[in-house]
Amino acid sequence: MGALDELTRPATDDDHVGGVPARLVASPASTAEAAALIADAGDVTVVVRGAGTKIHWGPPPDRLDLIIDTTRLNGVVEHAAGDLITVIRAGTPLADLSLGDQQLVLEGPTGATVGGTVATNTSGPLRLHYGTVRDLLIGITVVRPDGKVARSGGKVVKNVAGYDLGKLFTGSYGTLGLITECAFRLHPLAVSRLYVRTTAPASAVAAVLGAQVVPSALEIDSASGELAVLLEGTATGVRERASVVEKLIGGEISEEAPAWWGVAPWSADGIGMKLSVPKSRVPALTESGFPVRGSAGTGVLYAAPRDITEVERLRALCVTAGGHAVVLTAPPPIRDILDMWGPVPGLVLMRRIKEQFDPGRRFAPGRFVGGI
Amino acid sequence: MTDLDALARRLRAELGPDQVITDRQELRTYECDGLAHYRVVPAIVALPHTAAQTAAVVKACVEARVPFVARGSGTGLSGGALPHADGVLIVTAQMRRILGVAPEDERAVVEPGVINLQVTRAATPHGYYYAPDPSSQQICSIGGNVAENSGGAHCLKYGFTTNHVTGLQFVAPDGNLVRIGGRAEDPPGYDLLGAFVGSEGTLGIATEVTVRLTRLPESVRTLLAAFPGVDQAGAATSAIIAAGVVPAAIEMMDALAIEAAEAAVACGYPAGAGAVLIVELDGPAAEVAAQFDQVTALCEQSGAFEIRIAADDAERALFWKGRKSAFAAVGRISPDYIVQDGVIPRTALPQVLRKIDDLAAENGVRVANVFHAGDGNLHPLVLFDDGVPGEAERAEATSGAIIDLCIEYGGSITGEHGVGADKAKYMPRMFGDDDLDTMQLLRCAFDPDGLANPGKIFPTPRLCGERPGRHRAADAFPDAEVF
């Protein structure tokens, strides 16, 4: 009996991806086990699933046999506090991490795993100061679609030895293979944090960025007309910086984030979009009449358009502004007729990368840009 | 007429006669980069002025099946721009326009030949700067920084080139111009920016780079702390990090490096120091003030016998002068030297330094240590005299053994200088066959013919289309063999 037979169970009604049912589910407990499974999987088509918090994102796969569930690839392998790094198995929920007075600044939906966060490249308000997955991931272990185990990077932050495959796998939606382990740089937890909350117009974003207050986050919610700035640091420093921001854009200093902070603006069965524009175009986007919410400080915002016409108008606004817009999730009837990814520069090279890593198109076929 | 003669003629026709060099004497100017002990005279040097010309050169190379190597200012320290004897060296230094500075988007758009420091100079009037600051920032080019994913003293807090590039136009190895990213973040699809930055010219040649600009800090404070030895300085570094402080930079020099710097630039570091730390904090004034007191106290508690605080920019510059000139300065105390670049977990610093001392004693050479202590990036300078028989070999052996130490302690064979021609042989010590094979899948996607900077990074090139090991997956899809 091969690893495929040993490690899989029949799928249940819940084991589908965007309505495409799987036949089998496997939950390997180690990189070696996952490698054996994948090496034995022949021409079986695979979708990788973590906690499933974003499994409905992206187009459904063209076909599906096996769901590789990562939830048993669980736990912190190493936390070297003095070196400000950690190595974590892909199926570990972000919420389970306990890193003392340090933090791994990954943000995703409640319940999201480390691997799912890397594979879909989610981010949140803190991206302004700490960057995104690509800035925090320093090493990765993956199983290729042919079952070979490969790693790149390492456990030190500063490292330019070889290609940075971690970045290639970040946001690759499981189309290049299975991520089993990730090494990250950590940051010290701030001693003190305060929010400045105001109803200033979006043009105030430039004033905050132009001040030398180094905000950790600068979020906007155009529906409520609110702008909120997060400051982190020493107790005295944060108080002083908060009052500088308050003088600059008005509002009030609060220990609490607004209720919309870091919350996706779409409903469970609605359309969810990620928009990205140059920072100077954020005011225009917020005044476009479509409610948007997100990181005004980086120009990455989210919207919940009601129909395809609104998707297209939002996308046109972003593209014209020098940015782009991706539909993250949409209900089935809309998803089936929508170009979720929109125009993607560099697609020819991306197809060639896919062809090299997964010539049989066995990993998440059709889920990614350009039908990859 | 040889094929290379025909190629030179075609390039002259496309670029103009003064942009193509084939004269043997003139070619010798380009025979090495900053790693001068590797020398290869290229067959042809091309000096394109535009992205279109760069693409035309690459296209011509592809059609003639001639390898090409990109070079910026030629300051690289791993031989990444080492020419190919039968190839074209494409020098991007003529593309040196700053195409735009957009403080409102916190971006600048520059051509690859623009010098690193010029980006900061262009941004400073707007209150911004370009954060990555390799020691060679007065002469190194942005195109080279992109190829090497250059770091610098301040990348402890601000990251490397890869964290500061948001858009690229590049000539792919097939000669096509590709544009990815821009002023907006998170372009959809695979992270081609992340793949390209740091690929050492093996995935193409950058012709336009969009970089992040960082707001100038409200306050910068710098201290110089003198310690009896490297153990105490290392302990201070660990204590600072453990306290949750993220300085802009923590730099260390040992006694021999200090001696060299004094001889070269008379930086006036405290007499009798076995090690000095330069610690720089930047950010909002209120934060910097609070943390600076904390850092000063931690240095004292760790055994600093003298702490100087820079009173103004001039004194700050003097602190840095010793550090930034350290590589060249060892020329004052030794006729020859090897600059090494390795990384260890910062907590292993004391053990590794002791072992480096032992190695030096065993091999009868001296090692001066200069490093980015905050991120564990060592730059041991192995001193030797090429005039003494056997000394060069012993120095080379010491330098190689230091790299083995870095791997043994879970670090890296290069933190910022790159693999290039120099360290390809070390790659199998850090990575397994499957790791290197997987990296080369990316190479095959970009450059199936292996014409872009061949022989760099990877000790053994992968034959693209060949799938080593089990063929089962490919057998199911026979068309996969055809690339």
UniProtKB/TrEMBL annotation, chain A:
One of its GO terms (molecular function) is catalytic activity. Keywords: FAD, Flavoprotein. SUPFAM superfamilies: FAD-binding/transporter-associated domain-like, FAD-linked oxidases, C-terminal domain. It comes from the Bacteria. Residues 17-189 form the FAD-binding PCMH-type domain. Pfam families: FAD_binding_4. This is Glycolate oxidase FAD binding subunit. It comes from Paractinoplanes atraurantiacus.
UniProtKB/TrEMBL annotation, chain B:
GO terms for molecular function: FAD binding; oxidoreductase activity. The keyword Acetylation does not apply. InterPro entries: FAD-bd_oxidored_4_C, FAD-bd_PCMH, FAD-bd_PCMH-like_sf, FAD-bd_PCMH_sub2, FAD-linked_Oxase-like_C, FAD-linked_OxidoTrans_Type4, Oxid_FAD_bind_N, Vanillyl_alc_oxidase_C-sub2. Gene3D superfamilies: 3.30.465.10, 3.30.70.2740, Vanillyl-alcohol Oxidase, Chain A, domain 4. SUPFAM superfamilies: FAD-binding/transporter-associated domain-like, FAD-linked oxidases, C-terminal domain. Residues 38-216 form the FAD-binding PCMH-type domain. Coiled coil: none annotated. It comes from the Bacteria. Signal peptide: none annotated. Keywords: FAD, Flavoprotein, Oxidoreductase. Its cofactor is FAD. This is Glycolate oxidase. It comes from Paractinoplanes atraurantiacus.
